[in-house]
Amino acid sequence: MAAFSALGKLTILALAVWILLLVYISGVLVKMQTTPSGGSEGSGVAAEALQRIDQATKDIERLRKQNEDLKRLLVESSRNVADNLAADKDPSKHDSLLGHPKNIPRLGEKPTDILGKIQPAGAVYQVAHLSPQHDQLRRKVENGVLELFFHYSSQLRHLTKTARDAGPQNVPETEKAFKNAIDSASAHFYALMADAQKLGEVDGAGTLRDRRLQNLTNLMQKRIKALQNPPDCANARKLLCNLNKGCGFGCQLHHVAYCFVIAYGTERTLILQNDGREWRYSSQGWTAAFLPVSDSCFDGPASANPWISIEGNKNHQVVSLPIVDGLSGRPPYLPQSFPKDLADDLVHLHGDPPAWFIGQFVSYLMRSSPKLEKWLGEAESRIRFGEVD
């Protein structure tokens, strides 16, 4: 019922915004059309304004249809949840499979491809509170409301400029009317956005979604840690990455993340050249700022073979990866890719799965070293947060 209440608010507020804008703009148009000196220019302004109002009305109708679709999906999802709970009274089975470490295979248990299938596709949906379509449509409604806000704001500003260009008659009054319309519409749109966000929290859906997404994060971090700490480093397959790409810090971090994704996709341990000791951003190397990328595997005397392709390097123990700009034989693991076995869950739980996937590697890379933690703590103590002179 809470979900339906939120949907009702969305619909009513959308209609209220529509009526409000029609009243404001219609009043302005009447004044513009009855102004003696308006002439043909006034008619042109009115015609253009009416055309834009018509387009805005169509946008409102599109949002209304999205709300109806969302209501229908909520009804279907509620029925599915009730059926699942009635069929299975064991609470432990209502947790995501990803939350149980025993269901997470280790690298040594040999999936043929670490990006491949880890668990039965769709298994997690047996315990899903709401369907994937619900979350996808919820995000679509949120984006639609936001885009509608940008659209109305842009159109009203354009109409204000058009009225100003048409002549000096009643310009201050016209600008005031449009400003009032923008301010009022903004308030209603903010309320709509708040209700759209609350829609994702009803019936505990937000908490469950966050928990399942955290389970995916835990799973990815366990995979990365296992890959980076092989039981036998001397015989492990490695990917060598040169930290010092000729660009700024953010660009260099992107470069190392790209190396990391290729290492993950090819099941190789990522090694920084010279263990990152020669880094232009720190005379003390990578570990002055961040934790080592591996606790047990480091750059050794073994010679590295240049990158050819996945197939061309399959028999090489150590492979040196060039910068992405000069990469030939490109593997299928480059952004915007993400693991197939996590795809269904990520599309359901996150609005941008490729960004989430890359973020897992950046998060691992940017774990603060003790030196950096100490420096940040000292800097924080010198900043008087919350104090006002």
SSE arrangement:
Elements (H helix, E strand, L loop, with lengths): L1 H33 L4 H49 L44 H35 L4 H29 L5 H24 L9 E4 L7 H17 L3 E4 L32 E2 L11 E4 L18 H10 L3 H13 L4 H13 L7
Parallel strand pairs: 1-2, 1-4, 3-4
Helix pairs in contact: 1-2, 1-4, 2-3, 3-4, 3-7, 5-7, 6-8
Number of strands: 4
Largest sheet: 4 strands, parallel
Distance between the first and last residues' Cα = 49 Å
Order of helices and strands: HHHHHEHEEEHHH
Average pLDDT: 73
Question: What overall form do the CA principal axes indicate?
Answer: elongated
Flag low-confidence runs: 84-128
For the biggest β-sheet, the strand order reads: 2-1-4-3
User: Percentage of helical residues?
Assistant: 55-70%
Number of helices: 9
Global Rg:
28 Å
Portion in beta strands: under 5%
Helix- and strand-based class?
A: mainly alpha
Domain GT23: 235-389
Protein name: Alpha-(1,6)-fucosyltransferase
Pfam families: FUT8_N_cat
Coiled coil: 46-80
Protein model, in words:
The structure is a single chain. The two termini are 49 Å apart. This protein has a four-stranded parallel beta sheet with strand order 2-1-4-3, with helices on one face. Helix 6 links the parallel strand 1 and strand 2. The protein has 389 residues and is mainly alpha-helical. Helix content is 57%, strand content 4%. About 12% of the residues have low confidence.
